[in-house]
Specification:
By secondary structure, the chain is an all-alpha fold. Helix content is about 80%, strand content about 0%.
Amino acid sequence: MDTRRKKMHELQRMADRVCVLILNTDLPAIDIEIEKNKVREHCLELYPDREWLYDIIYESRFDRLWEQFREEFVEE
């Protein structure tokens, strides 16, 4: 497997990890934001001219999961 493909798989594993943190932990939002930023940085490393790619694929997924499964944990 070439280096670029390995980095793409790493990006997917990182994103999957964030999803697991949202779904299966009570980790505070700030800690999940830190992990999301790591995914964003890795995505920009692979695709420096396509920041929208992260927003469309990953950020929207993270937001959806947060709204569905963690919204009750958000303090009002």
